[in-house]
Amino acid sequence: MIIQHPLLGPRDAAEFTYMGDAKLIDRPDWQSETAAQDFYAYGYLRDNPAGWHKELWFHEAGDRSWLVVTRNTVTHEISEVALARDVARARGRSK
Amino acid sequence: MRYSGFKVIKEALTGHKGWQPAWREPEPQSHYDYVIIGGGGHGLAAAYYLAKEYKQKRIAVIEKGWIGGGNVGRNTTIIRSNYLLDGNEPFYEFSLKLWEGLEQDLNYNAMISQRGILNLIHSDAQRDAFIRRGNAMILNGADAEMLTTKQIKARYPFLNTNDARFPIQGGLAQHRGGTVRHDAVAWGYARGADSNGVDIIQNCEVTGFRIENGKCLGVETSRGFIGATKVGCAVAGSSGRLMAKAEMRLPIESHVLQAFVSEGLKPVLPGVITFGAGHFYVSQSDKGGLVFGGDLDGYNSYAQRGNLPTVEDVCEGGMAIFPAFGRARLLRMWGGIMDMSMDGSPIIDRTHIDGLYFNGGWCYGGFKATPASGFCFAHLLANDAPHPTATAYRFDRFQKGLMIDEKGMGNQPNLH
Amino acid sequence: MTQRNRLASGGQINRDETLKFMFDGKSYQGHAGDTLASALLANGVRLMGRSFKYHRPRGVLTAGSEEPNALVELRGGSRQEPNTRATTAELYHGLLAKSQNRLGSLRFDLLSINDRLSNFLTAGFYYKTFMWPAAFWEKLYEPVIRHAAGLGSLSLKDDPDVYDKGFLHCDLLIIGAGPAGLAAALTAGRAGADVIIADEDFRMGGRLNSETFALGDNSGADWAAATVAELQSLSNVRVMPRTTIIGAFDHGIYGAVERISDHLKTPQEGKPRQILWRIYTRQTILAGGATERPIAFENNDRPGIMLASALRTYANRFAVAADRRVAIFTNNDDGHRTASDLHAKGVKISAVVDVRADAPRSLDYEVLHGEVIDTKGRLGLTFAEVRLADGSTRTLECGALGLSGGWNPNVHLTCHQRGRPTWNDDLAAFVPGSDLPAGMTVAGAANGDMSTTGALQGGRNAALSVLDLDNAPLDLPAAEDAPVVIKPFWYVEGCSRAWLDQQNDVTVKDVKLSHQEGFRSVEHLKRYTTLGMATDQGKTSNMGGLAIMAELAGKSIPEVGTTIFRPPYTPTAIGAFGGRHRGQEFHPTRLTPSHKWATEQGAEFVEVGNWLRAQWFPRAGEKTWRESVDREVLATRASVGVCDVTTLGKVDVQGTDAADFLNKIYCNGFAKLAVGKTRYGLMLREDGIAMDDGTAARLAEDHFVVTTTTANALPVYRHMEFVRQCLFPDMDVQLISTTEAWAQYAVAGPNSRRVLEKIVDQDISNDAFPFMACANITVCGGLRARLFRISFSGELAYEIAVPTEYGDALMRRIMQAGAEFDITPYGTEALGVMRIEKGHAAGNELNGTTTAQNLGMGRMVSKKKDSIGSTLSEREGLNRDDDLRQVGIKPVNPEKAVPAGAHLMAMGGPVDAAHDQGYVTSACYSPNLGHAIALGFLKNGSERMGERMRLVSPLTNVETEVEIVSAHFIDPEGERLRA
Prior knowledge:
The complex is a heterotrimer of chains A (95), B (416) and C (979). Chain A has 95 residues and is α+β, with helices and mostly antiparallel strands. Chain A is 18% helix and 35% strand. Chain A has helices at residues 35-44, 84-90, and strands at residues 2-5, 9-12, 17-21, 52-58, 66-72, 78-83. In chain B, 28% of the residues lie in helices and 26% in strands. In chain B, α2 (41-52) packs parallel to α6 and α3 (89-106) crosses α9. The chains are: A alpha+beta (95), B alpha/beta (416), C alpha+beta (979). The A-B interface holds A 1, 12-14, 17-21, 37, 40-41, 43-50, 53, 55, 71, 73-76 and B 240-241, 244, 249-254, 298-303, 307, 309, 342, 398-399, 411-414.
């Protein structure tokens, strides 16, 4: 597979290490009343779709960026690649 | 119809006119006591044991395509019970014992061959871990033996012990492990289930569950609604897709695992050998093909195919320990969908929906579990209580912190 | 007579170059340009192999890579290649080949008894028998079956050849160099595109080399040669003969194997045998041609019976008549071409048998309306029996019989991404479907354009279309444009032992039995009968099986469907996939900065991941490793020792939020750590399990140096970047792995300060530089360095780091400075002994299932802050009362060992899994205590100090009585550390 790195252009997927669903960005609030349940769902439950999937790839043999790759799990087609940092900010994460 | 050598001879002499279909092709009935979704090894085995061991009636297995077309039809055929943890080892040892009597039980030769499995050791830390594992196996009533490099070399004289990057320092053997003719497992269970009255319904896709007031009443299918008192799901790689129809999120990701077979070769490998430091394991089939594999590709996939870097990684591992394999040719590569769970161990449990039961999360190790998985799922379906060897395979273990993590990799499925 | 079937003229062989070769010990001659198969046929050798199951005599069926029958063991010694297709093996001088899969000689194969028993050995018979008694399967039946099965043999000697890997990039990859591929390449090449054209054959041109018709004023072969020459002259075109595209992978990546040396006796010095290429292309034109298919009838598998197109190839390209008397059996016009070509070359045509009443007639030979219903000839065809349309029969004398059942487009690569082909009634064949791999276009016969004109135009148009060119039309030569005229015909009514899969011995009868027994899905058929599972992946056999299945099921062929074509297109040497990653080159070897120095000291090394580390430093007179290790430990604890710890992961953490960041990744607090201080940190995974441990040293308000274990250097760094980029993207913090940037040594022992005082430029007295201090310093009069007063051994100890390029020099300087204290270099074994003596957890304890509680560090997990893993670490299952706790273990009898991996059982209680109390993680002999010691995990262990237990290791036949003690065997109060 080839991943269109937003900074570096097309790179072979073999340069990357895969982690999983990009929802891992949405780490729950530890002080919430429902923190125990939230962290369980965050840590263990997955949508695991057959189709489009936003997922985290780390450019381990490259520039060490974490990327959010939108990829179809049935065809392996990739439609979008973004820096995970930008995605995280857009989802409201900061410090 | 009973199979036997005499029957084979008799049919040969009378034009093979007497062979009957191995299973019927019934039309689905409107209601069953049990509907099992998934005509793979686990689903067929569950139906067989439900009927035969638990004396249940009115059972159907419904299958989207053709039976045995999932992972039981595309695996590397290994059976073993060399597990470490208490939650696992009794279950897999139960499975191995069922394998040992399976052909006579089913009256079907699945070519169960206890040719032994060997895990190579390359470091002191690995040795310590394998001693702990071997002891756990023996303490659970399984067999295990520590072999020296010399003993291994006697069995595999062409193993690379000259210039290996990671010198071989021995191995943990389980002599009762081995291989099975994988398709025959599905066919044998299907034939056995059918002759015990189970309806096997192929080309019948589940499109939804009918759930009312928290109770599952049956399944909507491409061939109409089929009512059921209890519905069991055993669809391996399709678990995520199927259970989403019941609005369940699972502690499972679907990944692709590739496997490979070489052209047929005269016998060179007596048993199964695994090279953990190099992501490679191999055995030789009765037809002569080297059957081998390695790691997952690593990304979520339902594509049933993988990519070249993993092919190369696996073959590099093969060449590292067996440099004589260089001139054997890889004949075919294929990929299956692995229902990778969050701790690398399976789930056989009730769901929160009354009447709906789940069997899945087998990762890449479901084949060897087929008999026990079917047996334990049948037990659960019939009794609403887990089988004694499968009490740990609960959904809520993640919530409670009772993971069964053989590899210690944590909640990242592609690392198991 | 040599080469008695060689035609007097013609062919693309070099008659001036005669090559000698051996087959089954007999010497023959052929010419340059021959394949092994063509050369054998030229010499009148039709029998080349035996089938898999019945050991039936086999000759060539084809003239290409789809060959199921003529498989040989090529070459000898360590280069022996089993299952090599004689039809693609290029002849070279001195070629050696043996027939395979026989017991006895090829002519008198003792296992051909199976053929007599074939009525018992039908599809799936083995599933129904061999079950009694149970133990006999492994002991008797299976060994017999295994021995009879398999095809060729491996030499079991290490493959002596080298395989390379490479990467290629292009705008357009063209697969196949027949008329369509060449026209596409010429169009794209002249337009300046970056083009790769690959063909599996050693001579490019595809069918043009096998036909006699003209392209314009030239022969097809000459046009192909001229076109290839022009393409080779273009700098933007890479022409790759002998190169098989094995698979279409994601995103326009194709696997290719180029056979650099397989046409030579041995590779040239410095050259690989083969190269595995990964080709990255924007667009692909698949012009892989088509494969003719045979027709099934009784005994249709004798040597001499082959595809009609193969007969033509042998005659036209190789100037070989498979026999001097040939018959043809066809259902389409193409079969007649073979007859007319062979007739023109003086070969006697016994007859052309056509199933069609309206078949073309010929003045040159007889055309019969009928079917071939049986053949004769034990080791090679002698007669064919024909049933004519009027019901009468005729016997044709012939040594070769050409079969033409129509052509299947080579759609394989279109299916590698699970695309499905579609049925074309006009061709009676599957053609590529619409769900092609992204970027792929199909042209020529592969796309169902079966005429030469159709192929040329299809290739040109495909190139124009994919490159978006519209104003560069290529003038194509005039060529034949015959339509496909075919009547679908798969098998002769009433036949039984009629072969579909000639390698695996699957007959029409087997397919019918499979259907009778309920194996009616096409996949069940394949798996039950093994149809199409041979080394040719069913290229010539699948269609016949599908057609019969369709008929039995009362369905059309497309309704029955197809099995899935999988990569590789043709079987590919495992060595090619392995490349150079074998032997010592399997994985890279990482060397520490003191490696050269350690080698000089005679160190023994050990693999730690990809690192090589000094394990111990033997001295003269030491007979066992233990003697060396004991000495190193005692000397370190008595005076001073030095150890290379560079392999520990190091991560530089900088930024105003650096302390907050560490607070997130460690479960214990770091915000209040003073500048100039170091703290032990325990890192949890998000699931609350211990991930790694190490130290974090605060060199400045906004600058920390974090260490990790050797094994986890990479995953920890990745995890830290995840936390930084994905969870806290606005923290002002930057990370960089500096593991390779700094050489780091542990200097440990009561004299360590005195040694370092001679090297370090600053004051490092206990007051100035107390336990857990850290600082940027200089050494040796100005070299920048870092000093940490941390201790893994439990002694007064330091870790000192310098830029890697000074690592070797620093080690030598430390040894020099320490000489007066008898400084002792120590390796990983002594390091391990000292950390066990001190009770420090390491990899064996941090095994991915242990919690902070298990390690006795439960109280370290701060409840006052949010850190990775803190919430999930509170789950009940991770906080049970009877949880495992790390303990020390010692033998009651000091002579006994306490092996790692042993399990702990209560005294007097049962020994089984249900009563398992815990296990030993790390063990060693403590030279300081004079007996074995160990660390382990024990249920409720912290409450069980002093308890006697049984340590059992049934695997290694050990049972020992042990006592549970504190894990801190040495200096539990930590006085030495602070000295």
